[in-house]
Amino acid sequence: MQEFIITGGRPLSGELTLQGSKNSSLPIMAAALLGGGETVLKSCPELTDVYSASRILNCLGCKCSISDGTAVIDPAGAEGSEIPENLMREMRSSIMFMGAILGRTGECTVSIPGGCELGPRPIDMHLAALKKMGADISDKGGRIRCRINGGRAHGARITLPFPSVGATENIILCAVTAGGETIVNNAAREPEICDLCGFLRARGADIKGDGGSSIVINGVEELHGCEYTIMPDRIAGATYLSMTAAAGGEMILKNACVAETEPFLSVLEQTGCTIYAGRDKIYLRSCGRLRAVRERIRTMPHPGFPTDAQAVLMAALVRAEGTSVFEENIFDCRYRHTAALIKMGADIEVMGKVAVVRGVSRLHGAEIEATDLRGGAAMAVAALAAEGTTRLSGIAHIDRGYEKFEEAVSRLGGDIRRV
Ligand code: EPU
Q1: At residue 289, what are phi and psi to the nearest 5 degrees?
Q2: Average pLDDT score over residue span 383-406
Q3: How confident is residue 118, by pLDDT bands cut at 50, 70 and 90?
């Protein structure tokens, strides 16, 4: 098992070009399964989750190859409709293939997906929506079989009880080649939804309203191939900015999606960092001793503060002057990183969905283990701001979402080694 050895306590500085978005790439790769023609995806991050998606595509009969940040996907031979349990377990986004396989073949067999353990992550909204679009669904010992009578889903009016990102994506994937119009009310508004829709439109889909809470999809008969560039990863961006904020120093983030990162930036700015944002660049300077954030930091669906940036911002605030309060409203169990931060000297009290972070003047290195993707990244942020050396295990979690993490950190002058 690999580990990161991180020696902290020195300021960071440098320029970093942001990777393509993990949470866009995965549904977009599923979408490449639909219709005909080859998809060429530029800025496709080389991550273990992206390789898992590639294995699923190949297992369904697609030809998918990834090299030098470009994925090429040819769905011509994609006759398969079953994803084996071992592939389903590799990541949460395997569930996104359900809508796409149904759209392509009219039937699919999957199982409950794996992914980060952030509390219960049911798929009831996905299944209820697909049922409304004509799928018969049965669950036998955890294997979920879906079948559409006549082979083609039909449009439907669907109101989600919560703007779930994954359920919105699955509905879109099933609806783009369905017969008739689908309306998704209370849809997720995350930028990655817009990226998926942008990709599908480039292939000939008829989708309107993404980015708002009602999305209207008119099913088309065919989709064609296209070349598409995946949006930058706003959460990886938030992670590297938090890192420099925590350790002190200055950095320029290039290929940044500035508008999409705004809900995070507006909170980070309250810590006293100097931030300038241009069209696709973000400059940050930090003296290394942040101010606590006065307002409660509430994670909310976009355009609220992103749950995926909660842990990395918390890691930056553990050494801030004063007390910051987080409220996690998306997942039930997204404070697992706090145990490691406390081991490093942080003063954090978790009470249900609230975490109270009382700033301490110093952190020290420790032996800690990443328990999920963003929690693991948060531990690295804290380690770079801590005195001494940290041994961080469980880094397979970090490799799921951060492309060449140690290279990026080293480019900023951080002392990190993979052993
Ligand atoms: N939920 C249900 N039933 C459902 C679907 C969701 O109860 O059928 C609940 C979930 O349990 C959760 C909430 O709704 O409490 C939000 O879940 P959502 O469906 O929006 O999340 P997701 O699609 O599973 C994506 C990202 C997550 C990100 C969330 C929220 C991908 C691959 N994953 O997950 O990213 O935290 O949206 O923005 O896009 C990460 O990158 O580290 C990560 C976990």
Answers
A1: -115, 100
A2: 97
A3: confident
Atom of ligand 1 nearest to the CA of 306: 38
Q: Point out the ligand 1 atom lying closest to the alpha carbon of residue 164.
A: 20
Binned at pLDDT 50, 70 and 90, residue 177 comes out as: very high
Measured in angstroms, how far is the CA atom of residue 78 from the centroid of ligand 1?
27
Which CATH number is associated with domain 3-19+232-418?
3.65.10.10
Is a pLDDT exceeding 60 seen at residue 170? yes
With contact defined as beta carbons under 8 Å apart, do 216 and 178 qualify?
no
Distance CA 104, CA 99 (A): 9
Average pLDDT over residues 130-141: 94
User: Which residue's CA is the nearest one to ligand 1's atom 25?
Assistant: 165
Q: What's the CATH fold of domain 22-229?
A: UDP-n-acetylglucosamine1-carboxyvinyl-transferase; Chain (3.65.10)
- Domain coordinates in residue numbering, the chain: 3-19+232-418, 22-229
Least confident of 109-118, 130-139, 190-199, 315-324: 109-118
Q: Do domains 3-19+232-418 and 22-229 have the same CATH topology?
A: yes
Q: From 139, 189, 143, select the one nearest 163 (Cα to Cα).
A: 189
pLDDT at 115 over 70: no
Cα-Cα-Cα-Cα dihedral sign, residues 199, 30, 264, 368: negative
Residue nearest to ligand 1 atom 5, measured at CA: 123
Which atom of ligand 1 approaches the CA of 128 most closely?
8
Q: 194 CA distance to ligand 1 centroid (A)?
A: 16
- pLDDT at residue number 91: 84
Residues 135, 127: Cα–Cα separation, whole Å = 9
Q: What percent of the chain has pLDDT over 90?
A: 94
Residues with CB under 6 A from ligand 1: 23, 26, 92-93, 116, 120-126, 162, 164-167, 188, 190, 235, 307-308, 330-331, 373-374, 401
Name the burial class of residue 278, with classes exposed (0-12), middle (13-18) and buried (19+) by CB atoms within 10 angstroms of its CB.
Answer: exposed
Query: Which residues belong to the active site?
Result: 116
In sign, the C-alpha dihedral spanning 224, 35, 47, 170 is positive
Residue range 229-247, pLDDT digits in tens = 999 999 999 999 999 999 9
Q: For ligand 1, pick from 164, 264, 328 the residue to mutate: most ligand atoms within 8 Å of CB.
A: 164
* The pLDDT of residue 405: 98
